[in-house]
Amino acid sequence: MRLWRNLEFWASVLIVLATVCLMVADNLHWVHLGFFAGQFRLNHWFVWIGTLYIAFAVPAIAISKRKRPSMYKILVRVHVFGNLLAFLLISLHFAGQIDRPAQFYPQLGTGLALYIVVIFLTATGFSYRFKIIPSLKIQTNRFVHISLAMSFYTIIVIHILHGLGII
To answer: What is the largest CA-CA distance in the chain?
Structure first.
């Protein structure tokens, strides 16, 4: 019952709902995020910002939580909300990619795998933080969440190398 009174939970739900609404709005062409901002499209800037945040902030926060236990609650909130905002940015990029015309449709292989991992990372993080599934052991959820994070790092390297034409 405490979950329903948790402001952090509702703010997190709001970010997830905003993500879904923005993805739908992009696919229905109510908003257009594929315009150029400098050398690259805006939705590419989004994915790079989101991915770089996850790639560098997550390990930094994990190390900081161990080095400064007094900051644990603040660091967990930074982790939760930072990653949800990164998920929003990555989702907007994915929505833009799957909405491309047939003649310019991307090869979805590593990008699709990466987005699926990000979705599961978000879901397991959400479940872990707010204990959504009480019957699921915390250790199991934590193990799956950390394993998915390792998958994220592996797939992002492959995705970048593929995008650069190296592999």
So the answer is: 54
